[in-house]
Write a structure and sequence with these properties.
336 residues; alpha/beta; nine-stranded mixed sheet; 11 helices; elongated
Length: 336
């Protein structure tokens, strides 16, 4: 069913110490970011409630509505009359990374379960993840078994992205990881200390360290509806990840500039030798035009890459809130 991978050896004594610290009756907080998930959200809440109840676990189901325009919110409010649901409504659509951050900031549990509301992340794996958490792993996360259901362009983009992200990086981010994971309270507290606004959550999860375990899972098709996450969103997330966790784009263009400089010096020496031996004919306009346009393009591209980093620095120094909440609804008699 699953393939267990331990990314980074964890000493058995450390796992034993962490396992001994687990509370006997933990409160499990499920964070479900939702954007236009009216067809899926209630079945997901019911499924999670059933699974956790069967395990005898106290739990809260925290739905973070990321500015939905359908009837996601009314359906969640209706479900909260019979389920331990807390609804956090963001003031607008901030994106999934920020919605997860809002959920992490507001939950009360000893351990958190991060899961999408569209059933692409199999909820049946939640008890398995929690069992591994009890064994001493502070973070148990999902790794895609394969990407067969994705387009060739998306698979190629993902491969190039991780190659750029991890090249020369002292702390490599495992490829094909997902937001579907279980986080111990120590990791939740660590994530809350990170103030950056350009958030790439997969990088932050990996950066905090602690004891981690990957479980290979099979990503399912959406149960209903159509995903709002398109290639444009993927590209934006990729740029955020690269600029937040890698200086490789800057280093690449440093190398490109050095290589072009070497070519220019070599070409100048060639022209000098050619002129001394054969004279200086008037021809050469095409070469000059190509050289000028090529170098101009390289300079503009380099400025653009620098602009990405400067722009993200500008967003950070403005100090605006990461998100704004318009409403929090929690059942008065909510029993976890």
């Amino acid at each position: 069913m699953t393939d267990t991978r331990n990314h980074g050896f964890t000493p058995p004594y450390l796992l034993a110490l962490r396992a001994a610290e687990r509370p006997a009756d933990p409160l499990v907080s499920c964070i479900i970011p939702a954007y236009n998930e009216s067809e899926n959200i209630v079945p997901m809440l019911e499924t999670l409630h059933r699974l956790l109840t069967e395990q005898g676990l106290r739990h809260e189901l925290v739905v973070v509505d990321d500015g939905s325009r359908d009837d996601t919110v009314p359906k969640v409010l209706q479900a909260s009359q019979r389920l331990p649901v807390t609804l956090i409504q963001l003031s607008r659509n901030f994106g999934k990374e920020i919605a997860l951050t809002a959920g992490i900031d507001h939950i009360q549990g000893d351990v958190a379960v991060l899961i999408d509301g569209d059933f692409q992340h199999p909820p049946e794996m939640v008890p398995v993840f929690l069992d591994k958490w009890r064994e001493g792993y502070d973070m148990v996360y999902s790794v895609r078994a394969n990407r067969d259901n994705e387009t060739l362009a998306k698979r190629a983009f993902t491969r190039v992205f991780y190659a750029l992200l991890n090249t020369g990086a002292p702390l490599k981010i495992p490829e094909n990881t997902q937001d579907f994971r279980v986080l111990d309270r120590c990791i939740l507290d660590a994530l809350r200390q990170m103030p950056e606004r350009n958030r790439f959550m997969k990088g932050l999860y990996n950066w905090v360290g602690f004891t981690q375990l990957a479980l290979e899972t099979q990503t399912q098709e959406r149960r209903a509806g159509k995903s709002s996450f398109n290639f444009r969103n993927l590209l934006g997330l990729g740029l955020t990840g690269l600029t937040a966790f890698s200086n490789m784009p800057l280093r690449i263009w440093t190398l490109v500039g050095f290589f072009i400089s070497l070519l220019s010096i070599g070409y100048a020496l060639w022209e000098l030798l050619h002129t001394l031996l054969f004279g200086n004919p008037v021809s050469g306009w095409p070469t000059l035009a190509v050289a000028v346009t090529f170098l101009g393009g390289v300079q503009l591209l380099s400025i653009g890459i620098l602009g990405e980093y400067v722009g993200r620095i500008f967003n950070e120094v403005k100090g605006r809130p990461t998100y704004l909440i318009s409403r929090v609804h929690k059942r008065e008699d909510d029993q976890a």
